[in-house]
Amino acid sequence: MTMNTEFIDRYGMLPPGTRVLVALSGGKDSVYLLHRLLELAQPRDLIIGAAHFNHMLRGAESQRDTEFVAELCRKLGVPLFEQRGMVKEYALEHRKGIEEASRELRYAFLEGVRADQGYHVIATAHHANDQAETMLLNLARGAGTKGLAGIPPVRGNIIRPILNIPDAEIKRYLSEREIRHVEDSSNQDDGYRRNRIRHQVIPVLEELNPRFASHAAAAALSLREDDEFLETM
Q1: Is 21 helix (H, G, I), strand (E, B) or coil?
Q2: At what angle do helices 28-44 and 60-76 cross, to 10 degrees?
Q3: Poorest-pLDDT segment among 8-12, 44-48, 143-147, 154-158
Q4: pLDDT of 17-32, one tens digit each?
Q5: 201 and 191 in contact (C-beta within 8 Å)?
Q6: In whole numbers, what is the pLDDT of the chain averaged over residues?
Q7: Rounded Cα gap, residues 151 and 128, in angstroms
Q8: In a 3-state reduction of DSSP, which class is residue 151?
């Protein structure tokens, strides 16, 4: 089954000839994204590369992820760019939290590779459940329409081609094709607010409506378009 490109085309993410750098952690979402983009490579004349940032936060598990990504890219024939980041030291030096420091270093690395290697865009694997979680977190903080619009499909050189795809579809795709990925143990730590939303809130909402994540993602896009329209008036 080829990828539905309606969402991608709606936001002009992947015109023919685009050179795409995939942010590849080795987790299920980024592995799914890589495989899906490779499906589009020939019909759209895309050039696909991957970039992996090792945050050096989980010891042997971080090294396992790096080795898994290297082997995956070798098998798929995808160029891979890697970097290790001293996140704890950066966070301490700049007085930032670990999550913020990780994000800053990761995106700086990705943008550096994109510019140096001639890629047009960076593709990240945010999906519909990520969007729903972001909306709920922002709602809890008292956000207005901008916050409820959640994660943008496109921001500068960053594209999110699977922002409309629910987590259940990603799992089904990988399972049916027996595609391996790695699990990040920190995703199970409910000390993080996002994980509490993911593990304790989203399941309840999906009991009420199994398509909750898809509906939330669609609502976020609608709010974003409404907000952008109002700003032009």
Answers
A1: strand
A2: 20
A3: 143-147
A4: 999 999 999 999 999 9
A5: no
A6: 91
A7: 10
A8: coil
At 14, list the tokens. 């992947």
- Chain Cα centroid distance, residue 201: 21
* Residue positions counted in the chain: 233
Beta strand pairing call for 158-159 and 121-123: parallel
Residues 191 and 155 sit within 8 Å (Cβ to Cβ): no
159 to 33, 64, 79, 162, 224: CA distances (angstroms): 12, 27, 19, 9, 16
Place of tokens 């000839």: 17
This prediction's pTM: 0.91
Give which of 125, 167, 132, 164 is closest to 148, Cα–Cα.
132
Spatial separation of the C-alpha atoms in residues 153 and 26, rounded to whole Å: 22
What does each C-alpha distance from 201 to 3, 64, 136, 187, 204 come to in angstroms? Answer: 29, 31, 9, 15, 5
Residue 94: what pLDDT?
86
pLDDT digits (tens, 9 = 90+) for 152-203: 999 999 999 999 999 999 999 999 999 999 987 777 766 678 889 888 999 9
What percent of the chain clears pLDDT 70, i.e. is strictly above it?
A: 96
Cα distance from N-terminal residue to C-terminal residue, the chain: 42
From the list 162, 49, 47, 65, the residue with the least C-alpha distance to 110 is 49
Angle between helices 212-232 and 128-140 (to 10 degrees): 70
Q: Which residues contact 190 (CB under 8 A, 6 or more apart)?
A: 196, 199, 200
Q: Reduced to 3 states, what is the DSSP secondary structure of residue 118? A: coil
